[in-house]
Automatic annotation (TrEMBL):
The gene is cutC. It comes from Arcicella aurantiaca. One of its GO terms (molecular function) is copper ion binding. Keywords: Cytoplasm. This is PF03932 family protein CutC. It comes from the Bacteria. HAMAP family: CutC.
Amino acid sequence: MTLTKFSPVIEVCAFSLESCLAAEKGGAKRIELCAAMYEGGTTPSAGLISLAKQQTSIEIHAMIRPRGGDFCYADDEIEVMKADIQVVKSLGCDGIVLGVLQKDGRVNIAQTKELVELAKPLQVTFHRAIDMARDYFEALEDIIEAGCHRILTSGQKNTVMEGIEDLTELVKRADGRIQIMAGSGVNVQNAQTLASTGVNALHLTGKSSRDSEMVFRKEGIAMGGLSEVPEYDIVYSDADKIRAVVDLL
């Protein structure tokens, strides 16, 4: 009997149209489309979603996050999220990505359920807000109860290799009831190790950067107010880095 090798789906986190095109060229099967890289991802613009849908043929899942910071949202922010879900549905997205916590660090099941229902028939990924929850394994059960299809996690650590022990246990406890996707620091060096945990997907950026084409450069000012964020550094997803992971698996 021939055994079928299981290969996790490769998802690319993209912040630009250029990166969406690179994701498809590199062999990824899915894109998580975001804005605001340095805030961990917020809802992308309608224009970016529209062009990404027009110019690629793989799945696009849009981030639904009204701001950076924590994942405990006021009522008006939840209304913004609802409106954004309607917009991304109208633009033909295949799924959405979100995460909502209560003040006490538990998953907000009621709000998540409401957003999941609104998103139907789109798939819903609960993002790394789970890594900020007070109880990782309690959050797993709450996310399943809320009706999400997938969890993106780094195993409660800054990078997924640091969190691989908890990630492995999460896969075991999920027991096929929900998909588990590993993200944060995924690359060609660790992809096979992460795949061996039994995760359904690997989430990466395939990040590279290049210098801006600007000749004139204003010194002593930072547009985001953070001097450590390079003003003249263009970050993008590299198709070759993505392809290296795809081919490895």
